[in-house]
Structure formats: structure tokens, C-alpha cells
Request: fold
Amino acid sequence: MTRKRSFNELYPTNEDYSRFDQRDSAFGQRIRKTGRMLNYNTEEYRTRRILKKIPGFSLVDYAFKDAAGMYETLPWEDWVMDKGFYSWRPLGVARKLEGVPRWKGSPEEAARLIMKAAKYFGAVSVGFCELDRRWVYTHSRYGREIVFEDVEEGYTTEDKAVIPESHRWVIAITVPMEYRENSYAPTALEVTSNMGYSRMHILAGYVAEFIRGLGYHAVPTGNDTALSVPIAIQAGLGHLGRHGRLITWRRGSLVRILKVFTDLPLPSSPMAPEGIMEFCDVCKKCAKHCPAGSIPDGPRTWSGSSDANNPGALKWYCDAEKCLAYWDEVGSGCSICFRVCNFTKEEGVIHDIVKWFIRNVPQLNRLWVWADELLGYGKMSNPEKYWEEE
Ligand code: SF4
Ligand code: SF4
Reply:
């Protein structure tokens, strides 16, 4: 496939599109109605599952999952916006010295520094783009209005979160989720989501402090403040999957995304090689296996049927309300769509060859879909065996 389309061709919006209010997301609605995001995480619910001896939900499995999510589930108000290492103010660890001018270099040189440091800190991939305000939420999940002001440093109050006008660039970064542990979805042994959130949190802090040490400003964010998937696509990290997640060429869906807004000038990364959306057009495996019927099996559309959908972007609209209801039923974040995705594979030469064909000979896509099914990829691993394995 030789054609290189722009981001706006790959992820277009129309006149119906407006910035999304995170209070209208499935999580946001749940908080509004019940005061909490997840029903299955209560002590009573967990105790019942442990005592019933449900495979994948033992005391050990829960302890493993909780420990992995240390930086996700600490009881911080308003998710993690401006909390812990996601602090919008400098942590004071890396500081530019008063008597030394701030670092100077071209956007490309800055990108090289950030890329090198972020990968050392644990990033899988790093991309850059100009901040596109379409993707910034109007309000946080707990109702803080997100605004832009002519201030030097980002800050939050009880009512608002202020991104400085000068923060015109975004660094999008992925962290890994492990293939093996993800194969235990949907049980408490699927620790990779929690682990990913913890990694995001720590890595965002490292990168923001690095930028501050150079004499610039940074607002590190996880799933808060702005939509991660379009920003990651715009920053060249991958493309949209039918299941609504980012798909990367290297790790498929097995990544989590963090974003850092900054006033350090950066170049725009090229779009990732195309071919992923065309593959999703014919694959539909996630739609077939989603137990909640949340993933559409038709073409991309301009709107979805759920109240949690924000219309006006051409994409696959998943019904996040149905998805969340299934989490409560199964007692865990689900992640089946990550597990079964055709791009969820261990890294290796054979899979690299198939990906080359997906990029260059899309006429063979149906063959790979058929072969994936035939070879039985994406099956759930037996949670009773996890702790016996090396
Ligand atoms: S997480 Fe589970 S329920 Fe939600 S969309 Fe994916 S497969 Fe469906
Ligand atoms: S399972 Fe298939 S259709 Fe669904 S996201 Fe993965 S590649 Fe796309």
C-alpha cells in the first residue's frame, strides 16, 4: 500500500463533532448515577467470588491485580488528574538551574532527546504532534471544566483545569501490556491493564520532570484530560481498531497510552504505515467474540447508538455502557477484545512477515483472518494453571 493519507483523511470529523464531556463517558455516567465507577470491585462482591472458588478470582489473583494497579487504584479523587506523578506542577526533582539558560535546540533535536529518554524510562513507542483541541475534554469525569489560559504553568482547582495556551505540542507514549497475562482475560489474572496504568503514571512523571529540567513546562496525563486514541494516531503511533482501541504495528492492541502536553517545540511525527483499518474492515473477530455485543460489525459510521458516544467522527462506535455492564457481570475488566484481536501476537519473524503482507498486499487479508481462526489464536488461558507456570 503506497498511499499516505493525512490524519484528517484517516480520522475525519464533521460539523456534528464537538469536544466531548468526559462526564458523558460510560464511567462518567456511572459516577453520576451511583457515585462509583465499578460495581465489581466492592469488598462484598470480591469476598463472594473468592469464597466460591471461581478460577481466576482467588485471594492470590486479586492481590496480584491490585498490586499491579498500585498507581491506578490509589483512592485519589477525580481519577488521577494532577495527582501523584501526574502533577501539573513541577515535582522539583529535575530543576533547571537559575544561572543557566534553558536548553535550546531545534524541534527535531528536542524530539530526539524526548524519544531517547522516554524509551529508557520504559516507553514502547513515542510520537509527537501539535495539540489538536478537538480531543481535549470539555470537563473531567468529575466535572472540572478544562480550559486554556495565557498562563505559564498548568494548574487545577476544584472547578477547573487550566492548560497553558503555550502548550501547543503533545508527546504520545505507549507502555506495554503482556501477551501472556492478557490471555487470562476476563479474570483478575488479567493484570496487564492495571500494570499498564501504573507504568503510564510513573513514565508520565519521568518525562514531565525531564522536560522541566530542560527549562520548559509539562502537563502529564493518563486517561484524563483528552482522548488518547486520536492523539496517538495523530502522533503516528498506530491506527484505530474496530474495537475502538489503538492498534500498533509492533504490539497490536497490547499497549496503554499516556500524553504529555508541553511548551517545548516539537515536530509532527509521520503517520504510521496504513493497512490496519483495512484489515479491520474484513476481520470482525472482536465483534464476533465481544460478549456484550458492544463492538459493531459493519463499516465505520459518523455516530453510535449509546449515550456514551460522541458523534461526528468517522470511526467504529463501541457501546461502552454495554461493555461496562459486562464487566460487572464477569467481575473484572473484560479485555476479551484485546485478547482475541488478530494483531495481538507475540513478537516474532513469522508475524512480522504477515504484517508486511497486511501493509502491502491487502488482497490477502481474508486469508490471515482465516488462518488466525484455524490456528486458534486468542483463546483464553486456564487461570487454574497460572501460578504453576514458570
Ligand atoms: S472489553 Fe469485553 S465487553 Fe468491552 S468491548 Fe471489549 S470484548 Fe466487549
Ligand atoms: S479483532 Fe480484527 S477487527 Fe477487531 S480490532 Fe482486531 S484486527 Fe480489527
Notes: The pocket of iron/sulfur cluster (ligand 2) is lined by residues 241-243, 279-280, 283-286, 340-343 (CB under 6 Å). The beta strands are 125-130, 145-149, 155-156, 160-164, 169-176, 218-221, 239-240, 246-247, 255-262.
